[in-house]
Amino acid sequence: EPEVTQTPSHQVTQMGQEVILRCVPISNHLYFYWYRQILGQKVEFLVSFYNNEISEKSEIFDDQFSVERPDGSNFTLKIRSTKLEDSAMYFCASGNFGQTQYFGPGTRLLVL
Amino acid sequence: LAKTTQPISMDSYEGQEVNITCSHNNIATNDYITWYQQFPSQGPRFIIQGYKTKVTNEVASLFIPADRKSSTLSLPRVSLSDTAVYYCLVGDFNAGNMLTFGGGTRLMVKP
């Protein structure tokens, strides 16, 4: 069964550094998403992406964040100048229908 | 966006049937009801989705009454591995819509 993959599984960075989180969505999906979950809190939507552009973004997704589909398979989330409060699990998801999304295993980001 | 309310936590024993009810009083005509499961340190996993009446798959059943103001996720004969957080989501079926997760129901299955 096809699945969403994410790399790295863990990332430790210093405050102020840039990180790039990578995802490979399921190949025939058209919509891609990033969510995050701070430890012990709810899963929060960050951004959705369709047809090579952002279709929706939350208040969390400010100028510090950007997404890109650099080729036909990868989908990346870049966080510029990381802050302590960016520490969280970041989940990539993909799908073709709004409420049915397939999540990856996540990247645990720790900002020191 | 329809607000959902579900119990914070539930306990059960192996082999029992578990029913988790979610209320969504202001569900809109175009909204579907979707349930996700999340294990610790893993991404949410789609379980089941429905619009009305009953839907069943290999994992669970979803019961939706005629007024659609609530729904019940039924897990038959749970095992220890069903210990997880279960989320009820309500939203438009349109592609590309973001998912809004609440706090979910933390199910603990005991031996």
Descriptive overview:
The complex is a heterodimer of chains A (about 110) and B (about 110). Chain A is mainly beta. Chain A has strands spanning about 5, 10-15, 20-25, 30-35, 45-50, 55, 65-70, 75-80, 90-95, 100-105, 105-110. Chain A has one domain: Sandwich (Immunoglobulin-like), CATH 2.60.40.10. Helix content of chain A is about 0%, strand content about 55%. In chain A, strands 2, 4, 5, 6, 9, 10 and 11 form a seven-stranded mixed β-sheet that branches. In chain A, strands 1-3-8-7 form a four-stranded antiparallel β-sheet, with no helix packed on it. In chain A, a hairpin with a 2-residue loop joins strand 9 (about 90-95) and strand 10. In chain A, about 40% of the residues are buried. Helix content of chain B is about 0%, strand content about 50%. Chain B has strands spanning about 10-15, 20-25, 30-40, 45-50, 55, 60-65, 70-75, 85-90, 105-110. In chain B, the strands form two sheets. Chain B has a five-stranded mixed β-sheet, with no helix packed on it. Chain B starts with 8 loop residues before the first strand and ends with a strand. The mean pLDDT of chain B is about 95. The interface of A and B includes residues 31, 100, 101, 105 and 108 of A.
